[in-house]
């Protein structure tokens, strides 16, 4: 029996429609939601990501301010720019595109963003709020995955979830979001033993390794009727692939995400949603 494809483009579009409506409501209150992006250096992939984010903002009526900075900028100069963006009342969200050049400290940089404008959910303040079930701004990819579960009415209560990632961007925030929904979560990583066995016992597998030389999720590791969310993207034989081959996994899974066209579109959709949330927060607080 073939499972159901979780179509990230379709779900992202439904999020964008809600965002568009919220933008109109905010504009009726004389608030134009605005996202500031900071791109350091000339990494071609990062430039494409930022361009796609601007395009998505444009589609839903969110204003953008683009800051392209030299790759040899110093940490103190970058901090000064972020401080100025924090003070600028016309800007509601700040996104620093990662990775940064080697001379810059990612933690110091992202931590400097005002928690109220932290649309990536990366500041220690917002990460702490998430652990306490109080976060308004949550990392985009994890919140996009939760949106996928909701769209397909996938109940997480009491489900065994194997999460193969422990990064600050995906694994850690997702762990807290899943716990909030009463799932039982096992976080796996490069030192985890018996990962195949753990996967076989899982009701839901969320994998985000992104290196097929280190890990591939095979159909033998998936039990009949499980849900598979493939967050990974990497190049393999000139194609964009995830950690699993969708065509073979969907033969066993009840639901699965393809790569591309699965989790990817959700990340940008949730960035738009976070920008709206940040704009609403600032208007409530009179900022």
Gyration radius over CA: 19 Å
**How many strands, what sense, and barrel or not for the largest sheet?**
6 strands, parallel
Please give the CATH architecture of the largest domain. Answer: 3-Layer(aba) Sandwich
Number of helices: 10
Secondary structure: elements and pairs:
Layout: E1 4-5, H1 8-28, E2 34-40, H2 44-60, E3 63-69, H3 75-87, E4 93-96, H4 106-111, H5 124-131, H6 140-151, E5 160-164, H7 171-180, E6 184-188, H8 195-200, E7 204-207, E8 227-230, E9 234-236, E10 239-241, H9 246-249, E11 255-256, H10 263-284
What does this structure look like?
The structure is a single chain. This protein folds into 2 domains: 89 residues, 3-Layer(aba) Sandwich (Rossmann fold); 126 residues, Rossmann fold, CATH 3.40.50.720. Strands 1-11-8-7-5-6 form a 6-stranded parallel β-sheet. The protein has a 3-stranded parallel β-sheet with strand order 3-2-4, sandwiched between helices. Strands 9-10 form a two-stranded antiparallel sheet. Helices cover 41% and strands 16% of the residues. The chain has 10 helices and 11 strands. The protein is α/β, with parallel strands linked by helices and 287 residues long. It is globular and about 55 Å long. α6 packs parallel to α7. The longest helix is centred in the C-terminal third of the chain and has 22 residues.
């Amino acid at each position: 029996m073939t499972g159901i494809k979780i179509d990230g483009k379709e779900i992202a579009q439904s999020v964008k429609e809600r965002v568009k409506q919220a933008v109109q409501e905010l504009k009726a209150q004389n608030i134009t939601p605005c996202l500031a992006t900071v791109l350091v250096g000339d990494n071609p992939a990062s430039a494409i990501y930022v361009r796609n984010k601007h395009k998505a903002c444009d589609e839903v009526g969110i204003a953008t301010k683009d800051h392209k900075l030299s790759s040899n900028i110093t940490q103190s100069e970058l901090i000064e720019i972020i401080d100025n963006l924090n003070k600028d009342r016309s800007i509601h969200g700040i996104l620093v595109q990662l990775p940064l050049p080697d001379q810059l400290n990612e933690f110091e940089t992202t931590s400097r963003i005002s928690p109220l404008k932290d649309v990536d959910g990366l500041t220690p303040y917002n990460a702490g709020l998430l652990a306490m079930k109080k976060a308004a701004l949550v990392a985009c990819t994890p919140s996009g995955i939760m949106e996928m579960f909701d769209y397909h009415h996938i109940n997480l209560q009491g489900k065994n979830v194997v999460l193969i990632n422990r990064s600050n961007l995906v694994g850690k925030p997702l762990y807290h979001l899943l716990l909030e929904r009463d799932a039982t979560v096992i976080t796996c990583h490069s030192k985890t033993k018996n990962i195949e066995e753990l996967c076989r016992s899982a009701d839901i597998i969320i994998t985000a390794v992104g290196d097929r030389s280190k890990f591939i999720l095979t159909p033998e590791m998936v039990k009949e009727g499980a849900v598979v969310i493939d967050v990974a993207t990497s190049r393999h034989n000139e194609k964009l692939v995830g950690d699993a081959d969708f065509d073979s996994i969907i033969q066993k899974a009840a639901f699965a995400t393809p790569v591309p066209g699965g989790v990817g579109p959700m990340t940008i959709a949730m960035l738009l949603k976070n920008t709206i949330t940040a704009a609403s927060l600032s208007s409530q607080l009179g900022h």
